């Protein structure tokens, strides 16, 4: 069993990531409020940086296979800041999916063990969505 030590920096990073997701959700609920969406993006990226470390974050975003997702995420954020939040979020969502597509199988296995959501993610249609990414590994 692999042990995962949770120091204070990682706790703060996970908290910032959670607040980033929360503020992004609020920004979408409040009709694409660009202030909440921008704050959510900044908190999310800074939380990821604190959680996995600055060097690992830079390696992840600057990896050749992740350039398309990184550029899409950055351009979407700039478009959001300029004042077109819906278009910015669409481009950011594309970048997010491209960047984190290697994590979907891990997320699927985790969600299948959650009591209520597990039943939903064990249905054939949902499983077929995640089978597409089976075999891809995320380098650590």
From TrEMBL:
Q: What InterPro entries does this protein's entry cite?
A: Got1, Vesicle_transpt_Got1/SFT2
One CC-aspect GO term: Golgi membrane
What transmembrane ranges does the database entry give? 12-32, 38-57, 69-87
**GO BP of this protein:** endoplasmic reticulum to Golgi vesicle-mediated transport; retrograde transport, endosome to Golgi
Q: Which Pfam families match?
A: Got1
User: Localized where?
Assistant: Golgi apparatus membrane
Its membrane topology, per UniProt? Multi-pass membrane protein
* Keyword Acyltransferase belongs to the record: no
Question: Where is it chiefly localized?
Answer: Golgi
The protein's UniProt keywords, in alphabetical order, are: Golgi apparatus, Membrane, Transmembrane, Transmembrane helix
Q: Which domain of life is it from?
A: Eukaryota
UniProt lists the family membership as follows: Belongs to the GOT1 family.
Name of the featured protein: Vesicle transport protein GOT1B
Q: Which organism is it from?
A: Lupinus luteus (European yellow lupine)
Q: What is the lineage of its organism?
A: Eukaryota, Viridiplantae, Streptophyta, Embryophyta, Tracheophyta
